[in-house]
Amino acid sequence: MRVGVTNLATIVTGDWRAGVSDGDTVLMDGGLIEKVGSATADELERCDVVIDADGATAIPGLIDSQVHITFGDFTPRQNTVGFLSSYVHGGTTTSISASEVHVPGRPNDPQGVKALAVAAHKCFEGYRPGGMRVHGGSIILEPGLTSDDFAEIHADGVWLAKAGFGAVASASEYINLVRMAREQGLTTTLHTGGASIPGSFPITGQNLIDIDPHVSFHINGGPVAIADEYFEVVARDTEIAMQVCTAGNLRTTLLCAEMARKHDAFDRFLIATDTPTGTGVMPLGMIYTMIQISSLTDFDPISMIAAATGNVAKIYGLNSGFLRAGCDADLVIIDAPLGCTKGTALEAMKNGDPFSIGAVVTDGIPRFVGRSRNTPPTTRKIAVARSNVVSNFA
Fold first, then answer.
1. What does the alpha-carbon distance between residue 121 and residue 159 come to, in Å, rounded to a whole number?
2. Residues 81, 46 within the same domain
3. Within this chain, do residues 45 and 84 fall inside the same structural domain, yes or no?
């Protein structure tokens, strides 16, 4: 399907260093972005669907790198069906597994955790709830796993490994497990901060540095944060990505952002939700963390969008997260909410108001156009201008 989004006032790239692209149009074809900028009448005529943004703003689809999926669009933690589809209506077009830790009866032996990770990965390879791309299958690091085990599951497609919920006696046991997983090509993540649920235990700032994962999950607390002094140490002295989550400590979220900027480590600053957990199901969780940081600091909202899109894509090696030719065609049209005292989505964010979502496109396919079921109405009238397919995407 060839899709064009035109009449955009602002195109946010997902790259905080070059935050806005020239032009008013994004063209997508075959699941990829074909062109960002301007389009001729002929190029738009060749589109199967043309969406008129009416002067709204386009951003890359949000990437939530801390989602506790299980199987299907269901969370036993909150006994909720359809939560991933609902997150699409909050602008999240990609979710990355934070491990299938909430699966009832979760195994903790090496064969069991390998089987669980492979099964989750395979299940989500072709299953896209609400159009969302889900990277499922994160092996939970347990005692007894070997380098050969990591090589085996990596050959089966699993590329994520999670430390922090295993049956280890102490955090120091994760050092070797994370090292082996990294050597076999897996992206390693670590529960950081105080214990969150039964089966987890505290990971201190020093533990984080010693274990040295690729990504520090909810470094701002999930929900309990590490000691303040370690935010500067991690930003200054390590290469660990600093993921802050909605289900965490807001004060240390702001501290982490400031330390990332101070030490030229903002590329490693990521926004996620850490849901569904005891905090609940949060379709607008990504949005609320972005606007909290934007409105309570002097950070530009464009940087916060990058922290939820392009920064995540770079750390995890994804082809999404940017509005540029050749990237996955995941796009969200946002606007100032109806009744807002500000005129644009970015101004609303700086004011502390949530932006409205007027359309979501994933894999080059419009999933809805005109109204999100989870945000206020848009100020502008975002609509399908022309369609050669049966759906009107309402």
1. 9
2. no
3. no
